[in-house]
Amino acid sequence: MSSFGSKLGYLVHHRSFQVALVLWVVIGLAAVALCDGTMPLPIESHPDKPIAMVVSSSIALLFLVLEIRLVGLITRRRALPDLARRAPERSVALRETIALWLYGALVLLVGRLVGLHYFGDSIAIHLKGSLVGATRMQSPEEVYTWAAYNGILLALIPYVVFRMRGYSNQQLNLTSSNLKSDMTVIAVVLAIGCFIDLVLDGNFLKLTPHQQIAGGLLSFIFHFFGTGLPVMIFIYSILMPRYAKLVSPVTAFLLGAASYPAIHVFESWTRYDSPVHSTLSVIVVFLIFFPPG
Q: What is the model's pTM?
């Protein structure tokens, strides 16, 4: 059996993978049932097609699994990094994981309350309109506040705190062990993403050259601080090594994937005004963000 086949067989027979697969099917069915034919959350341009959303999420999951396989092929001659060695002993890793999530939950909750009070929308990981379509025009002050709030509270402060606790950049997954290979992976994945966004979606190409250059650059900068850095530092720099120390590699991988939607539970389109809306909000967050996570 090939190396890939043996790894796939190991994955399929792993309990964590089986549980994750069952949960994925369950939340998909639950989303369709709770929508009852119409999406009550302000997320889709076609609210009468919740089944299409569930199907598209599963297609995205399969596509991203293939993308993982492509990255695996590119890096097949590299040794897998031992993330567990970059974490402290299990008891310390557990305390740090719990403390970081408690801190993160507080930051996300306060961001929702502050955003709703001052701007009418929560300060979430993604700026409203960047993923599911804008329903209003944000002010420059709102964009500045969003980027600064997330960049400082979810990236800068956790990074500084863990550096002060004695962890090196390598222990925080911020040092490359093979820069050439890493740059190749980044270039390939970036090219795939640009192809999907520019060619298959096409909205960016409808903008004027000035909007593409000036607006694209500003968008990159603000989203780098408001989304990219917080996700990278909070999940992949700090949490992933600790997950690897606490559980098996497959479970750690799935926890990392689940952490990405978990940090998005207060997206601007989520609603927590009723049990049905609350449950559906969490489910849809996982349907959208678990695949890229």
A: 0.87
